[in-house]
Amino acid sequence: xxxxxxxxxxxxRKQRRRRGGCLSLTVLLGVxxxxxxxxxxxxxxxxxxxxxxxxxxxxxxxxxxxxxxxxLDTAIRLARQLLIETPNHADALxxxxxxxxxxxxxxxxxxxxxxxxxxxxxxxxxxxxSDPRLQAAQAYALQAAxxxxxxAEIARRVLQSQPDNxxxxxxxxxAYGSVGSFESALRETQRALEQxxxxxxxxxxxxxxxxxxxxxxxxxxAVERALALHNRLLPLYFERAxxxxxxxxxxxxxxxxxxxxxYDPANIKARLRLCELSSLLREREAALDxxxxxxxxxxxxxxxxxxxxxxxxxxxxxxxxxxxxxxCSSLQVMQNVPVSERRFECWYLQGQAAEILGDxxxxxxxxxxxxxxxxxxxxxxxxxxxxxxxxxxxxPTGG
Length: 399
Prior knowledge:
With about 400 residues, the chain is mainly alpha-helical.
């Protein structure tokens, strides 16, 4: 058998060439895979870097949308979450501060939101003291919480470095109004309104300034312009009603309170205002009905019991008035309301009802409680009986 070497060598050479070609393809694929992996690592890194910023933008946009539709609870929750992740996020802090302040005026049980705004803004400024935008939010919170002098000082410092800071300008305007500088407040508010992004807060501040100056028609016009921008912010309706009442327009005030109840059927503050308005209009049954709803839905709110007791007193039901007013005074004591902030009328009218009924034990107990309060703290009101005691309940003296 003959071996065909040429053919065998040729086959061998061809196989060697194929083997060499396969090795080159493998190397090429490896190089391409390495390049792809390197490119993906760079791209993935870029995505990871961009993702937090995109997420934060989405969160602040969602919070702003909630604010715009009047859902302050959601706006506050989303802005809080963002500040936990980024404590010096100026936009989130500004939105959270505004939402807390607006919510604080929306119902009877949200007053603590103003103090929360003060605390949150102070923490943000402590985290980054150099950012004037955070300081502007702090000034805005302080003026709403009854600290206008400090608010004005901070706002002025911000405006020195950022004259176009709308939040600082509004904080300064509202602080001026709080201390009686109404013309200065109006001037600063008008300057703030030059910035369209602050139209809502600026128009509200403008309405307050006009009201402080006694120009209630202009105040109504300003708050109605604010409502045209954000028609679901409940505090604007309460302010609209207040300005309407200053003009004697009870119908417009009633419509504003009903609008609050349309958006928030459980709102207690609107019911109390309707009780007060009904009493003013001498619609006695309606007043009792609204006040009764207040005390049923918010039994721990002293103001509701005061208004109910006052209405019973005006209608001559002194026994019911005495009971409601006693609840009012007791709640203030149990809740440790500072003496200077207590509603004195709960004691005085309660005593008058007891005197009319000839209920000397209750009258003396109420009167002595008031005297004890007046001895411990400065009380603006006075309630004085002769040394021998209230008429009809005088203690006989020997002689």
